[in-house]
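Incident log entry.

Two folding requests arrived from the same account within the same minute. Monitoring flagged them as a possible duplicate submission, but the sequences differ. Recording both here for audit purposes.

Request one:
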Amino acid sequence: MKGYLVLDFSIKVLEGFLEYAKKIPAFIEKHGGRYIVQGVVPEKMEGDWIPERLVILEFPSTAKAKEFLADPEAQELFSLRHKTTSSQLILAEGCI
């Protein structure tokens, strides 16, 4: 089953975030991932959830998504994202 990482974030420090955004695609690709949704401002349709920006990444499996998140070479970039954004991240398994 495919694995999907869903990131809801708001940018606090644009300059630092732009560095992250420039470098992270190589790590996504390294683990077989690809962008499904890339940093868009979503339209609220129902409920109370109002994400500022949304990213959805698709990986061949949840294991590959977890490998991406655990990649030692990407930890500095994840730390940079944590410093420059407010974010929430979930992992969901696809049904196909």
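Request two (distinct sequence, not a duplicate):
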Amino acid sequence: MTGQLVPVPIHVTVHHVHVHLTVDELICVIFALLTAVSNAIASVLQRKAAAQVPAERSMHVSLLADLVRRKVWLAGIGMVMVAAVAQAAALATGPIALVQPIFIIELPITLVLATLTIGNRHAIRQLPWRAIIITTVALGGGLAVAAPSGAIGAAQTKSWMIALAATAAFEAVVITAAVGTKGEPRAALLGLAAACAYALTAALLKNAMFDLNLGVVQFFTRWHIYATAVAGVGALFLLQNALQAGSLVASQPMLTVGDALISISYGITLYSEVLRTGWWLLPELAALGAIIYGCVHIAKSPLASEAGPVVSEAPSTVQ
């Protein structure tokens, strides 16, 4: 495992912000970016295959039987597997507070790739480039300013019990509120619920990777990997309901930004991860505001509406 690497520091200065990266954290960033790109490619390939299936097979077992025979869909599944391995490697080598926010970049990447598959050479010019650039720069700047770092590789059982109880209570409140609404508010609330479930899945996966580092027996005899699977399925279920309830504009920003923020809270409470505080909070909040602005405007763009099913399928792995 890369956790055995000597943490040689790498110093980078970005606009007078001093960033301190270890070799593990640099590898973590690379794997997180690979995850985002792989997920984006997987979403586009799977959507392309699904669009070729007759409409009458929707919500039927025959849909899957048809997709399995299509090479483009199998290629998409292959990219999902690549993304899953890359995310596991990222979480094994770096803090959750660093890994999960990077997945925000998956939204614009998916939209760009989906646009390229349209076949219209003028479509790429119609992309919301201003929002894409703002989101990307704000993400990089925000992470550089926050400088997340991790302290421990596995959470204590007591910490997990508290976190799981708090998560269950949060999900119950949000889902109950969603059930009592319709349209865009329901989509937004269910998007937030899905974000929390994806963040929990990532937190569990990080602990499972620590178990694997101890040995295969520990990996399969401890509960973390099985809880990861359950949380992942639950997250996928909530996401599909969010997408069914309303538009991409309502659900996607809540999913994208909510996943990042909740993941940071898990990293701090479970793994003793730290972020810069004090006056650093001002540029961090500014970056967060810019990210929200960018995500909303990306989701509102006409091309995102046309490629809605593609963009919405972005969380192909356990984000």
